[in-house]
Amino acid sequence: MRSRETVGTDNRTGVGWTGLRRQLALAVVLGSLVSWAPAGAQSDADAGRYVSPSFGYTLAWDTDDWVVADEREPTGQSTRDFLRLTTNDADREGLVSGIVFVEGTDQDWSDPDDCVRTLAREIDVRPSRDEPIEDPDTGDAYETSGDDRSAAAYVRVSEDEDGEELRQAAMFECRADPDSDLVVAFTHVSAYVDGYFDLAYPAFEALVDSLVLPGGEPGEGDGTAANADEETDQGDGGKPGPGPGQNDEPVASDDGAPVDGDGPAGSEEPDIAPSDDPDPAPSEEPEPASGDPTEFVADEFGVSLTWDEATWAFEGEERGDGYAAVRLSSELLTTAVVPYVSGDGSVTTCLDNYVAILNERGAGTASVVIRPDGQQDITVSEDGTQLQAYVAYTDKDVPFISLIVCYSLGATDVLAIEFTGPATEIRGPEATEQIEGLLAGLRY
Predict the structure, then answer these.
(1) For 302, which DSSP code?
(2) Cα dihedral sign, 189-108-400-432
(3) Which of 2, 3, 353, 366 could be stapled to 393 by a disulfide with Cβ–Cβ 3.0 to 4.6 Å?
């Protein structure tokens, strides 16, 4: 069986574009917004070439290896140029053995290591859980870390619509421009798990090594697509680990279309501005402003949060005109806790804003989940001051569900909390325990 590749449509719903632009700062602190609007053609599919419309880096590939499936440029809250390629072995039913996502930005990642970690999380790969793929030269887990280049490879395990286990190779590689903040990221998902480096990696390697950065310097390759047989800098390997799983047949990628449904209409949108604080230097570890590695305090909104370091990792904190935010992650979930000035203090407005943000992140696929009774999965307290809702969206062919929790903080302010995880696990016992544990540390 070969993996089925589908290209989604851009059916945007929710808050209008004017409102989305006004939410820019809020959206940035709510996490990675991997979304794009269709751009004018920047690739020459026949020649196998691509020029990033926003950042100017170029790529080249052998058209016998790759086909252009989609390309976008940043819009709204997005900061990334995006190119999607599929392997050139598709039959008339659209079955392919591999997908590559190429993304470039000068804002989302502090360094190549941060980029690799983010890419893995975005397609539900967890290094602490998922099996690393062996470096064929060393026998150790394939892992490279450096100032200009980082890479890692894992066996991605998911389920198909029949509940059967699917195993895919997932390779992440990030190249940094030494003369700017630009990082170019490559995500390769392949049906070939056993023998990945022999069967699938050469074409991917040639694509990555064709990268030429804006200043004209190749990103460690020679700037051509004809160097697939050359030695690559795979490093010394990382942590020792088991080899890849035995699976001779290609596997099907996740379909993951969310349940249809429209979010509630909001009355107003937050009018907030981004923080003027610069991004932390790549060598700096983020620390809460309170000085306590397990506490977030937003006195201006009367909000505080404490968490268990054994479960939650601090990812960043930001403050601006009319909002404060903290981002955390566990091995299963990512979360953002954001008190902000919404204008009306309505929990419905809070949800409306978040549906719009997730719709951007999911490139038009976000919608409130529909319960078996046909109603939207939204619960509002009797006094109208608390709300929770489940919103589904698909990002990079991976289905996610976000639990959105909103609290009214008065006549003008709200507190929005997002918990996002794999669609198959967000309601499970582990996720529920983590969510309840974090909410227990909330004071407002």
Answers:
(1) T
(2) positive
(3) 366
Please give the Cα distance from 16 to 356 (Å, whole number).
8
Contact between 71 and 83 under an 8 Å Cβ cutoff? The reply is yes
Confidence (pTM):
0.56
* E strand or H helix that includes residue 337: strand 334-341
Residue 367 and residue 387: Cα distance in Å, rounded? Answer: 16
Query: What is the rounded CA–CA span in Å between residue 116 and residue 184?
Result: 11
pLDDT < 50 stretches in the chain = 1-41, 91-94, 220-284
- Are 62 and 225 in contact by the 8 Å Cβ rule? The answer is yes
Find tokens 């935010």 and name the residue. Answer: 325
CB 234 within 8 A of CB 241: no
Bridge partners of residue 164, in order along the sequence = none
**CB neighbour list of residue 163: distance below 8 Å, 6 or more residues apart:** none
The secondary structure of 307-369 as a DSSP string is: --TTT-EEEEEEEETTEEEEEEE-SS-EEEEEEEE-SS--HHHHHHHHHHHHHHHTTT--EEP
Helices (H), 149-233: 196-199, 201-209
- What local confidence, expressed as pLDDT, does residue 390 receive? 96
* 38 φ/ψ angles, rounded to the nearest 5 degrees: -55, 140
387 phi, psi to nearest 5 deg: -150, 145
Q: Is 358 helix (H, G, I), strand (E, B) or coil?
A: helix
19 residue type, one letter: G
Give the tens place of pLDDT for each residue, 318-352: 888 889 999 898 888 989 999 999 889 999 999 99
